[in-house]
Amino acid sequence: MWTYAVDLPTLDGKRRTRRRSGFPTKADAQVALSKVLEYERTGIVIDDRQTVADYLASWLRTKALTLKPTTMANYHAYVHKDLIPHIGLIRLEDLSHQHVVLYIRNQLEAGRGHTTLRRCLATLSSALGDAVRQHRLPYNAARYVSVTRPTKYEPVCWSPAEAALFLKHCADHHEPLTNLFELIIGTGMRKGEALALHWADVHLEEHVLFVRQTLSNINNSTPVFTTPKTKSSLAWVGLSNRVAAALQNQAERQPDRAMVFTRRGGQPLRPEYVLHRFHQLTEQAGLPRIRVHDLRHFAATTMLSSQVPLAMASKTLRHTTLSTTTEIYGHLLRHVALDAVKAIETALKEAEAA
């Protein structure tokens, strides 16, 4: 067996001898030594005893200081349930593009879903990207690995008649969540935003409310309040007379509560309960099964199909940019294209007649 020894600088400014043995040939030892010297030359911090598992665990502890609890819970699951069991024993400096490709290939062959693997890969790439920026690695082994994007989900949208039938069914059966569904359908708010709504942010006389928080679940069990999805989500939402009436009814049903929608004891409604109850009511009403989030799509579809200007619809949905609205609902915007060219035609006719 062959051994190499080399003096390397440490973080405290001193030098320390690094000695590694167990190489079967002199050439192998020379390759390993050359790699160490190259890392030192390019400023890479060397710690060849740190495994991928050790690094990812340390990375998670750092990310916990800045991430939302829900995002942190997802990262923790991807790291500890997926990445560490399969590539955790590899030394960090030895992790290669081929290791990551093999991990993805084996998981696909085992039947893992493409969406889950894309998220695991994104987590790993984010962690390795930080290692590169911190001069811990020379390159990101996961950066150029890809997983086929699954077929894009096409939201199923109710017609206005179906939405009206659903709300009538809820009202006729004195459903406690009727006012919640009126709010989501009538404004396009996200479910978590509606569940996190506080009366202090509702101004019925002005027919507006302000979105400040969203309610999410950690590991499908622990509800937490976090900031909304994007900065643009923190905004005013207009209220129609119908939605304002529903909120007024909710205030009379649950007086002296800080939150608009709660359980009997005043605790926040659980998102999974709302989804389960929504599916029950949908089935009872004989309507197509959809997600609660598809009620937001209903609101958007109804606005755009009713000739509401794109900019106004985008503002109501609180999308970050107009392009976001266009990307999601581009198939509904044919009337915008027709209106645009008709405007040109009208201008030309007027000019010719002058």
UniProtKB/TrEMBL annotation:
Keyword Repressor among UniProt keywords: no
Gene3D superfamilies hit by this protein: 1.10.150.130, Intergrase catalytic core (1.10.443.10)
InterPro entries: CB, DNA_brk_join_enz, Integrase-like_cat_sf, Integrase_catalytic, Integrase_recombinase_N, Integrase_SAM-like_N, Tyrosine_recombinase_XerCD
Core-binding (CB) domain boundaries: 50-132
PROSITE patterns according to UniProt: CB, TYR_RECOMBINASE
GO molecular function: DNA binding
Record keyword DNA-binding present: yes
One of the protein's GO biological processes: DNA recombination
Coiled coil location: none
Pfam families (UniProt xref): Phage_int_SAM_3, Phage_integrase
Signal peptide: none
Keywords of this entry: DNA integration, DNA recombination, DNA-binding
Residue ranges occupied by any Tyr recombinase domain in the UniProt entry: 153-343
Protein name per the record: Integrase
Species assigned in the record: Lentzea aerocolonigenes
